[in-house]
Amino acid sequence: VSEYLVYDRVNVVVVDWLSGSAPPYTQACANIRLIGAIVGRFIIDLEKYFGIPPAHVHVIGHSLGAQLAGYMGEYLKSRGRILGRITGMDPAEPSFEGTDPLVRLDPTDAALVDVIHSDAGPIITGGLGMYQPVGHFDFYPNGGISMPGCGTGFVDSVAMEDGNIPYGFRRHIGCNHARAYEYFTESINSMCPFMAIQCSSWEEYWLGN
Q: The Lipase domain covers which part of the protein (predicted)?
């Protein structure tokens, strides 16, 4: 939020759905359908009462929040409107990979859907994000599976969070997953633009193809 407020004169709305995202995971997955509709209704009210069209709204979501953004876009489409942009930061993989576009984030949910994949390894190995491309532009930094700086010990993870043990534990088990929003946050005001190269796969990139 703070990076966007530095970037430009914008209004930022934060959706607090902490209780709705609590375990069990299957219930959290079910909750995003309702929450997506509620926030979609809010966006329509922004247009109705303040003259802010959905086309001027940029929705940003991480993990299940990225899939929630897809439901928001779907709700608005059903009301004859379309979001301006959705940024999905490592969209959640369990219950969504390979499913119908209607029940996950997909390119039709906004005029522009851009996605950062940072923890796209198989769920059996601890990967929490989707490998499947689901946007107009899908970015796979460092291959999208294992991020530099992750895989450190628990003590190092706590140190990176200034001694905060709960945050350190979260970083320790979800470092790759968190990298997506860290990369996005850094990109907002960075003086060093992030470069991307279109390629069919990470292997083809390394082969120079």
A: 8-205
